[in-house]
Amino acid sequence: AGSVDFALHAPVFAPNSKPAPEGGVLGPEAAAAFAASAGVPVFALGGIDEATLGELARCAPARASLAGVACIGGLWGSASPSGTYDLGAVRDRAASLTEQAASLFQGARA
């Protein structure tokens, strides 16, 4: 048996890149509880964007126990009417989310 370097806990919020799961979302408190007992760094995944980072910031146990966040849909945002993405805007969102996450989680990387 091998070892793991980190774990993802998902979906913490409703995903931005796909429909919400039938069982619902787990929420910041459940992510915090999982992270506190995991024994490896845990990153929150699912619906991570500027607004949900604020929700994580207001959840002291999540701030204390999560290693950081991982996101997909929160970076891409919405496609243009032609179905394309503005990669400059994606880069800007990535920089903004990284900065916000770093201020929430000590040593975090988004």
Descriptive overview:
By secondary structure, the chain is mainly alpha-helical. It is about 45% helix and about 10% strand. The protein contains five helices and three strands. The protein has helices spanning about 25-40, 50-55, 60-65, 75, 85-105; strands spanning about 5-10, 40-45, 70. It has a three-stranded parallel β-sheet. α1 links the parallel β1 and β2. α2 runs parallel beside α5 (about 85-105). The longest helix has 18 residues, at about 85-105. The radius of gyration is 14 Å and the shape is globular.
Which SSEs are present, and which pair or pack?
Blueprint: E1 7-9, H1 27-38, E2 42-45, H2 50-57, H3 60-65, E3 68-70, H4 73-76, H5 87-104
Helix pairs in contact: 2-5
List keywords for this structure.
110 residues; mainly alpha; three-stranded parallel beta sheet; 5 helices; 3 strands; globular
Percent strand: 5-15%
- SS element count, helices: 5
Helix content: 40-55%
Structural class: mainly alpha
Unreliable spans: none
Rg on CA atoms, Å = 14 Å
Overall mean pLDDT: 84
Main sheet overview: 3 strands, parallel
Distance between the terminal alpha carbons, to the nearest Å? Answer: 29 Å
Element order: H for helix, E for strand = EHEHHEHH
Shape call: globular
According to DSSP, the number of beta strands is 3
Strand order of the largest sheet: 1-2-3
Summarize the structure.
Helix 1 links the parallel strand 1 and strand 2 (42-45). The chain is globular. Helix content is 44%, strand content 9%.
